[in-house]
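Worked example 4.2. Below are the chains of a multi-component assembly; read each line carefully before continuing.
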Amino acid sequence: MRCVKSASTLIAKNWFSLTGHSGAGKSTLLRLLMLMERPTRGQVIVDGQDLAAVRSRAIPKHRRNIGVVFQNHQLLFDRTVFDNVALPLIIGGYEHREIGRRVRAALDKVGLLNREGAMPIALSGGEQQRVGIARAVVGKPKILLADEPTGNLDPNLSAEVMNLFEQFNQVGVTVLIASHDLVLISRLHHRIITLRQGCLVSGNSQ
Amino acid sequence: MGRKEAQRRKDGARTSKTTLLDQLNAWLQHHRLSAADSLVRVLDNPGSSLLTWLVIGTALALPVGLNVALDNVSKVSTGWESPAQISLFLQNGVADDRAKQLLAELSAREDVRETRFISREEALDEFRDLSGFADVLANLDENPLPDLILVTPKPTLDEPAVSALRAALEQNADVAEAVLDMAWLQRLNSLMELSRRVVLAVGGLLVVGVLLILGNTIRLAIESRRDEILIVKLVGGSNGFVRRPFLYTGLWYGVGGGVLAALLVSAALWYLEEPIGELAMLYESAFYLTGLGIMGALNLIILGGILGLAGAWLAVSRHLVHIEPQ
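Applying the procedure described above to all two chains together yields the following structure tokens:
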């Protein structure tokens, strides 16, 4: 298992861009935050909680507090856009009407309100990514993680997606974006953390 | 805009606080959703679902059908008119008066329900009619048959008491022999007991088979929805949440199998009803086949459902934990 050798503590209501070459440990850090992996050493603290204290049974609850946007979208292809976005709310046990309201709000935010009945396969890559983003934010998480969210998108779409993340950040969501596209993330004028071979190279202090 | 958004978020946070009642409702709602969703999935693949139902149905129908058959046989053996009838063959040369007196004495006994006198002449007539040896009998100089008294003990008497009664009746000086024809009944009963155990063993094996088949079917369902499971776990679905649809899938397979098993058994009984009716008529018996009945069919469906759940649980507990997002 690769190891992120050192990382800073994350503080809410902030923006971090995580960069570095592939294999530098960006994904590993995200996986540690998601508790898909446990650290061999050291601590991971999210929102004041030491993740070492989170038992396996409590992992789902922890994940519900984090919105994640995946590079390969991770959509359910046999469900409509609406159902995909509604998934975290159904898991969270929201009431039927509340689900409809929130899903439409999230889809509106990413500009896909008119596509709620479509199947993901009928959408373009950029649209699929935006469905993924809507799903990540529909549960109003405190933290939004994005793993190479613009990996498959052209520059225009990438800028659009980044713009969306900025909006979420403005309303108080901590955003952590892992991307190797240094040009794109440096344009956003936010704190950039650079990892190299699992080590923090720059960005430790603000 | 920032402030407005912040206000909306606060509202959102307030509505997202869930009370226990909300949690219970959400839980019930997901149960409803899972049940409906898995039923739709099962019905969406009618071919493979029907095959699974048939496999479960036949596996359940076999022992259940045999059991119904055994129930019917035991109904025959208990419903047999006076199974423990004692035949008293009187000594040769007992006068009719004496026989009549004996008959009255026997009828007065507390442990005797019914007596019937068959004189040697009547017996000969009957024998002539039924045996087809009329010509042979006509050549006989004298009637070789003894007088006979058929004694039916009280039905409340158990086996040893009936045997004791037989022994007591044989002590009578006028009685040449008292025959209690119960051996065949005992043989039948022990044969039935053996058959029941065989059916139970076969049923046990088939139940294990059904569990394994269901487990395998659910395992395949889990495999085919692996990506979905990973995604659900990534966005915070608990193990229970992921498990639920598969348990319901197992339940539907099991219930469907139970319904088919009930139908199969009923069909088999319907198929046998006519020849058995004819056979019963030939034996001058009012015997008719007893089927599963509504309760039997319901029990069978419930059994199917329980097996379905258990099989699904086996598969889910073995395979679902290994599917973790990497």
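Take a moment to check your reading of the output against the notes. DSSP finds seven helices and eight strands in chain A. Residues 77-140 of chain A form one domain.
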